[in-house]
Write a structure and sequence with these properties.
A hairpin with a 5-residue loop joins strand 17 and strand 18. The chain is mostly beta strands and about 600 residues long. The chain has a 22-stranded antiparallel β-barrel. A five-stranded mixed β-sheet has the order 3-8-9-6-7. Strands 1-2 form a two-stranded antiparallel sheet. It is globular. The longest helix has 10 residues. The protein has five helices and 34 strands.
């Protein structure tokens, strides 16, 4: 199915502004770095970028990072069970492995299955989240075909800000966390730690096996820290660290209570030097680890661990009416597994250049990157974006960019099933957008068209003989296009936010829809603050989807709409009570076929925090 004319008409209609009684949306003034690798305000970005700040994260209550992402434009998710279970995020219909995860600028994810482990990152450690939709290999290299999710951990500020949060909820949910943060002069620090637990739900409620009838919960212990020290006028050194240790139980049709241990770690060390008034140099070392240890039964154990070491030397130079970006990056990936891979490491040397600037009503961004990889050779990607301010309220933009994803170690070297001759997956994305904003009210419409080739899929070694041995091969192609609509405004005393997505994501050979990606989805949120009270309601929904290719009636999943609500009450300046209820209407729905999801559930927490 192609995007119909009615969808494009809807996009144009949605772009016309709401007229608020008053408006004050701080989203427009956020400083973002993911869209350019340099700090700019969100309204200056020529890419589609979304920011979730700390206030919104706190209002999310006991939601997870994956649940929070699901309400953003262009993002769909799937989860294989309840809280803590394996989760996938699809940005603009691309595969889950086509999203790059960064934590404080450090690349984190699995080099064996090729996807980030988002369910391990607790919201209590996060200061803000930046979601870049669209290709970003010209900035970040491999994996960023669908987009980039960058998580920034919490930092300290001037003064002393201790905090404690404790809560309980349905399905045996409970959490306890604490933080010490503060700063003096140009010193900043933060130390946060906590634990999350849930008895969970039955991960496979439709299973007829008696061993699958139990609840499958999770537990997570986490820690993060940061310290930075400024010296001279604008120089700084800093350190960030995060570690999360999660175990989730799952159904495996065995009497043994099977479980997965999943650990995510990141460490970043940076030194920023103001060499001249117009030239800043930043040297950054990063370490990211993704560990997955599976205990299927007493005798069946497996381990898949990834370590990534990254060195970046970036230069930002004011040049003309804009800013020049020049950087060198070195990335080393190493895997350690219970499976005997033919090769366990590879490295990439990268050079990137970029420039962005504004001339009168014109705004231009150009980026190019060359990656030299020890496994597949070289790859060059680029991006060009142009924006034009039609009036003080209206802005138009257009962009084109290429992206790629390197084959995973499973694709290349998995014992008995790898193909070391694989080439990277490649993408070409084009998009146009229109934005209206005034006094904090914003409405936008974006059309994108992404063509992905050399996708890796299983295929017979002899194409003429389907009965021959099969192995991964660069044989698949995908055609993805869509329209994203978003608006936010203050209507009287109410803050309102709405999104609508139309998506056509197809396998080019068969015409089948890509698995777990709905043709239509959306969200609606409304919030009001009244003295010590803040309350809000949210609706998130997706249309029907197929679980996989080939599409069939048997693997078709119905659409759903979930209603959530929250209330915060400030007992005193430093004390608050948080109440959140999810899936209030107790909808029965699936995010992955035959896997359960939570029914109506609630969570209550008490927070002490000096602001």
């Amino acid at each position: 199915m192609k995007i119909r004319l009615s969808a494009l008409v809807s996009a144009c209609a949605f772009a016309y502004p709401l007229v608020p009684a008053q408006a004050d949306d701080a989203q427009l003034n956020h400083v973002v770095v993911t869209a350019t690798r340099q700090p700019i305000t969100a309204d200056e970005a020529l890419a589609s970028v979304d920011v979730i700040d700390r206030d919104e994260i706190a209002r999310a209550g006991n939601a997870s990072l994956v649940q929070l992402l699901a309400s953003r434009p262009g993002v769909q998710v799937s989860t294989s069970g309840g809280p803590g279970a394996n989760s996938s995020v699809y940005i603009r219909g691309a595969n889950s492995g086509h999203t790059l995860l960064l934590i404080d600028g450090v690349r984190v994810g699995s080099a064996t299955n090729g996807a980030p482990t988002l369910e391990t990152i607790p919201l209590e450690l996060i200061e803000r989240i930046e979601i870049l939709r669209g290709p970003a290999s010209a900035l970040y290299g491999s994996d960023a075909i669908g987009g980039v999710i960058q998580v920034f951990t919490r930092k300290g500020r001037e003064g002393f800000q201790p905090s404690v949060r404790a809560g309980i909820g349905t399905d045996g949910a409970r959490t306890l966390g604490a933080a010490l943060a503060g700063g003096a002069e140009r010193l900043r620090y933060n130390v946060s730690a906590g634990t999350e637990r849930s008895d969970g739900i039955d991960a496979k409620p439709k299973s007829t096996r008696g061993s699958d009838g139990d609840d499958d919960g999770f537990r997570n212990e986490y820690f993060s820290g940061s310290v930075s020290l400024g010296f001279r006028e604008a120089d700084e050194i800093g350190l960030t660290v995060l570690h999360s240790d999660l175990r989730n139980w799952y159904d495996n049709a065995k009497l043994f209570d099977s479980y997965l241990d999943k650990r995510t770690s990141s460490l970043g060390l940076h030194m920023r030097n103001q060499l001249t008034a117009d030239w800043t140099s930043t040297l950054r070392f990063g370490y990211g680890a993704d560990e997955s240890h599976n205990r299927a039964d007493l005798n069946d154990r497996s381990a898949f661990d990834t370590e990534q070491r990254q060195l970046t030397w970036q230069h930002d130079i004011a040049l003309g009416a804009g800013a020049l970006l020049a950087a060198y990056e070195y990335l080393e990936q190493e895997v350690d597994s219970s499976s005997d891979y033919a090769k366990t490491s590879r490295y990439t040397n990268s050079l990137l250049l970029g420039w962005s600037g504004q001339f009168d009503r014109h705004h231009l961004q150009v980026n190019a990157r060359h990656d030299e990889d020890s496994q597949f050779g070289s790859k060059t990607t680029g991006a060009l974006a142009y924006g034009y301010r039609l009036s003080p309220e209206w802005r138009a933009r257009a962009s084109i960019g290429t992206a790629f994803k390197a084959p995973t170690f499973n694709d290349l070297y998995f014992p008995g099933g790898g193909n070391p001759d694989l080439r990277p997956e490649e993408a070409l994305n084009r998009e146009v957008g229109l934005v209206w904003e005034r006094d904090g009210t914003r409405a936008s419409a974006t059309y994108f068209n992404n063509r992905i080739k050399n996708l890796i899929a299983w295929a017979p070694l002899d194409p003429a003989d389907p009965m021959s041995d099969w192995a991964p091969a660069n044989v698949a192609q995908a055609s993805i296009q869509g329209v994203e609509l978003a608006a936010s405004a203050m209507l009287g005393d109410y803050r309102v936010r709405a999104t609508v997505d139309f998506l056509d994501a197809e396998d080019k050979a068969s015409g089948d829809e890509l698995g777990r990606r709905a043709r239509i989805g959306g969200s609606l949120g409304i919030e009001r603050a009244m003295g010590p009270w803040t309350w809000g309601m949210e609706w998130n929904g997706q249309g029907r989807r197929y679980d996989r290719i080939p599409n069939s009636v048997a693997n078709r999943m119905g659409g759903y709409g979930l209603l959530n609500a929250y209330v915060h009450y400030a007992l005193a300046p430093d004390w608050s009570v948080e109440v959140r209820a999810n899936n209030i209407l107790d909808k029965d729905y699936e995010l992955a076929q035959n896997y359960g999801t939570q029914g109506a559930n609630a969570f209550v927490a008490v927070r002490y925090a000096i602001h």
